[in-house]
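Request: When convenient, would you put together a sequence paired with its structure tokens?
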Amino acid sequence: MKRLAVIGMTLLLIAGVAYAKDYEVKKKAGDYDVTVKIDKNPPVVGDNNIEIEIKDASGKYVTDAKVKIDYVMPAMPGMPAMNYKTDAELKGNEYRAKMNLSMSGAWNIAIKISRGGKITTVKFNVDAH
């Protein structure tokens, strides 16, 4: 009976990992509600697809902005900071891009939304594995 319980728990753990939800962050930035999804949870060293959904104060999708993503690993002893930038492209109602996190550890991510001559920034942190 114990063996059956261990096998059952192992299968549940594997299924949970296989169907893990995307990494998701929801933030308010100025007049915008921004939802960010990364296709791996936790984000991994290498390519990570990122989707950004922006809604205005009335709940309508914002599809006329220019969206840039800056991702930085701060400097550490013996290692300079690593700074990367990528542009997100509009696909339907979401902006999509690919971030390549070059090493494991803490990354600071800033999503810059440029619309109507104003730049609004959403900031959050991830820990890549």
